[in-house]
Amino acid sequence: MDSILSIFNYLSTYIVIAGIYAIFSLGLNIHWGFTGIFNIGISAFFALGAYTAAILTSASPSPEMFEDFIWGGNLPESLGFFNLGIDLWYFVGMFGAIIVCGISAAIIGWITLRLRDDYFAIATLGLAETVRFIFLNEKWLANGSRGMYRIPKFLGEWFPPAYYNYFYGIFILLLIFILYKIVQKAINSPWGRVLKAIREDEIATSASGKNVFLFKLQSFILGACIMGIGGVVYTHGIRYLDPLTFDPLMATFIIWAMLMVGGSGNNKGAIIGAFIVWAIWTWTDFLPGFLSDPNLKFLMIGLLITLVILFKPEGIIGEKKVKLSSKDIDKELEPTE
Amino acid sequence: MSLLKEESKNTINLLEINSVTKAFGGLKAVNNCSLNVKKGSITGLIGPNGAGKTTLFNVITGQLPADKGQILIDGENIEKLPPHITHSKGIVRTFQIPRELKRMTVLENLMVVKTNQSGENLFTTWLNPWKVKQEEKANLKKAEETLEFLRLSHLADEYAGNLSTGQKKLLEIGRTLMSDPKIILLDEPAAGVNPTLMNNIVERIEEISKEFKITFLIIEHNMEIIMNLCDPIIVMSDGSKLAEGNAKSIRNNKDVIDAYLGK
Q1: Interface of B with A (CB under 8 A)
Q2: Same domain assignment for residues B95 and B106
């Protein structure tokens, strides 16, 4: 009985982490899968979202604990009078993170999106490292390398700590569903069609009367906001942040692997890819003997990517064709399954 | 007096290019080039490789900024405008090597072109999906009519990347028709196309010209097409206009024979 319970506990934690990655993957899918924006600086928006939420919601710093940061927004306390059984502060923090990520993406995109693909990629990589070093060195902002802790839980007092991840896992799945619906609506619209056209051929798209730069900027902002939401969910799920969280491997490249495996250009693929890759990343711990060696994880992920590229280059669920011919003119204009 | 007026009305210029220059480093691809395209005409643009024909197209549509000179459409200056603005002024083009949107269906390729779609605003798609859907229906209908006109209906749901070269060229012509243009610039519409499809393309061009009163400027190396389809024909050489006239006068022009046609 105990072992079954521990398996369930483990699964709930798995859903929390994989679900958080699924949100990032959804954001990256807007950038790469639909617009062809080669963003390898996901961790920049991950960090901005996560730190914004952490700074807004953490308790004020206490000097006895050698905390260097100066501004703990302490929203759970200050919004106490709003607290009519619903933790509104969580959504205020999320809103703040969306605003910060959106504005940063607008400014950065305005400068860098005019660059060609490969130069843009280098710029995003630089951006990610810059953001990480800002949070590492500006101790007044986010406590530097000691990190932010004492980050509150969403609806923490409602659930006993041992079962909290069951709730949070379900909450994340619900959030993924809502984000999926929002993104899907945007992608299956004329707006999304222009993004796909830009992905296929920028020159032809601008010769068709579309302002390519403005559409790319919008796509960049929307994707960055979703990545920011992922950061918020991470913050309140893990409840500890330091700049090491945002190293390129675990905060950017594993998300690329998830999107490639799941299928870029398909939002369902993006979500499923996150769950598959995270399963391989963590479940290899249970393999017998030398197979559980942590270094073999890299090999496993590499093998998975290679197999997918060899046998199903479009990903496990690739992009679906949008069939529009007259027989289904009155149906919803969505891809056929 | 009245006769003169009538004359000038008939030969009104839709597109005027006044001493345009475009240089790449030391090479003047378009060199002090001046030419006019009359409203309603099918004007041919021929010349040897490297004469600057495609560069001139790129300059007209705003893909490349002109170094010097003036470009006017219906009397309005457009030489400083980017491609998406010149498109809205009624100048549309096709490409020498087709630039179809590969992983999008033929219908999507057409529907994306339509201008002023309210569904291109992200917030409208979220907050007013009904309005977007109504527009999409009209857009889809127009795209299907265009496909029927081009005899491509059977490929409506095919990925554009899977089409043959000739079909891609037809699709590009279809894209130009989705936005009610004033002038269509065709860059070698018949290159690499089999004879049957070529006839189809030529017939469609004639039909568009007659029925929709759209002006054409066509680059083409196939003399049979140019001589039968186009009047007037403009010959370009070394970045500027060498000669202009109807098929017969061009065929007998000594400069043109030396520079391009050969004996």
Answers
A1: 61, 63, 82-84, 87-88, 92-93, 95, 99-105, 107-108, 111-113, 115, 117, 119-122, 125-126, 129, 132-133, 135-137, 139-141, 144, 156-157, 159, 175, 179
A2: no
